[in-house]
Structure formats: C-alpha cells, structure tokens
Amino acid sequence: MVGFSQVGAESDWRTANTESMKSTFTEANGYKLIFDDAQQKQENQLKAVRNFIQQDVDYIVIAPVTETGWDTVLQEAKDAGIPVIIVDRMIDVSDDSLYTAWVGSNFLQEGYDAVAWLGDYLKKNNRSDDDINIVTLQGTIGSSAQIGRTDGVEEKMKDYPKWKMLERQTGEFTQAKGQEVMESFLKTYQDIDVVIAENDNMAFGAIDAIKAAGKTCGPKGDIIIISFDAVAAAFDSMIAGDMNVSVECNPLHGPRVAEIIQKLEKGESVDKIAYVQEGVYPADTAAQEKPKRAY
Ligand code: AHR
Description:
- By secondary structure, this protein is an alpha/beta fold.
- The chain folds into two domains: 132 residues, Rossmann fold (3-Layer(aba) Sandwich), CATH 3.40.50.2300; 143 residues, Response regulator (Rossmann fold), CATH 3.40.50.
- The protein has ten helices and twelve strands.
- The strands form two sheets. A six-stranded parallel beta sheet has the order 2-1-3-4-5-11, with helices on both faces.
- Strand 9, helix 8 and strand 10 form a beta-alpha-beta unit.
- Helix 1 packs parallel to helix 9 and helix 2 runs parallel beside helix 3.
- The chain is elongated.
- The site of alpha-L-arabinofuranose has 12 residues, from helix 1 and strand 9.
C-alpha cells in the first residue's frame, strides 16, 4: 500500500505527474494507491501523511508544496517505521534520515539553462549590447521549483550587466494568477523586453495579458517569453509563435518512484538523491520535437 500526497492540480505539469503516478501504482502492477490532492496547501499534506501513518501504508510518497515544515510529521513516519520517498520538489529537514530517497529536477540548473539560452539568443540577434528589462512570474514561494529557478537566474544574470530585473512576483504556478500579475506588470512598465515565467501555465496567462494589452511576444514579437516545464501546450504555443523557449522539467516520476520501492522491497540500496535528465526546447525546434513528447 502506497500513500501519495500530491501538491494539487495547479498546472499541466502537475496533471502529467499525477497521471504518471496513478498509471504506475495500479492494482494490476501490484499496488494499492491512496492518492491525496493537497490543493497547494502544506497543512493538507501534513494531514494526509498522518492519515497514511494511521492506515499503516508500506510507503509514503510526498511531492512537497514547500521545502520547510516537514520535520515533525516525518519523524512521526519514521517512528512508525514507514519509509518516505520525496518526489519532484525537495524538502529542507535537519535530519536527512527522515526520508529514504528523493527523485526530481535540478531546478537551479533549469535557471542556469534559461539564462544561457537568453544570452545566446540575444547574441544571435545582435542585441548583446542592448539594455534588457526583465520581469519574472515566480512559482509558489518557498517551493524548490521557485527557489531553484529564481536563484539560478539571479546568479547567472550577474554575467550580463546590461540586464535588469524590473520586478519579480509570484503567480502561484497557475495560468489565472500568471495573467493577473502580468497585467499589473504591463501597467507599471512600458519597456519589458523579457518575461521569465517559472512554469508554462503562468507563461500562457502572461501571453494572454500581453495580447490583451495590444503588445506582441514570441520570436517575431516585442517581448521574449521564457518558460519552464515544456508541456505539450508549450510546444503548441511555440509553434503558434507566442513563446520563445521552454526549459524542460520532467514530470514522469511514477516509474522512477516504483523502481525505488522495488529496490527497497528486495533489500537493495537506493540513491539518496537522483536528478532526472532535462533539455531546453526553443521555438525553432518545437514543430520537430512535439511529436516525440510524452506529456
Ligand atoms: O515542482 C514542479 C513545478 O510544479 C512545475 O514547474 C510546475 O508547473 C508545477 O506546478
């Protein structure tokens, strides 16, 4: 029996992640899955984990909303002798033995990749010497996906003195909030060159806001759109000419978590930390890449 506490259903990425977990942990594959949707609230995740402990599940799997706040509940799981596997975002705990393994993305690297892509893109377009104004739609504050992407961009931006971060605000990883925050950025700043959206759904919202304001975006437009996740709809957006690039964040963790559980069942050791391989997908490759995408 596996209890899985999922963040919520805030994005296409999350839907793909849930689907990967549900299609892996099936009865046909020998599992009973107890799935809990926390609706983006850590307090719901804490309740779910306590519920799993009460039900005496064999494994607890958590996709954590935020990094902090896990020590007490994970100590309870440890005291009950239930192994905990963390998936997708990371946790920040004082004692690493509170979880058995983690598998997910290198969010800091994703931030680095976004900056490297922008530097190359501006160079190719003879804009390396231009002043470049950037706004960022951040993910859920305190989540690894937000922390890594924000920090990665901030660190590597230091190599580009002509770039200026006008403002960062959270769009909570949702399309609606991404659109709302972008509308307010557009009212405040007349001269935005680049939008960094910390996931595709916020980028879709931002694109809607840009169009509604009578501005243009994408490779042939005024505003460069950089996004993260590389879900199917991002490829459609790039093919339509709206988005410039999406840095991949792979959600297909079901089989990876199952492999960890299978190894633990056999008494084998598992990697404590496992990063997945991810790529960068610019608009000019979108039409060719889209048919190969699994999510
Ligand atoms: O933790 C992964 C992030 O969470 C994805 O980038 C985002 O779309 C999701 O909500």
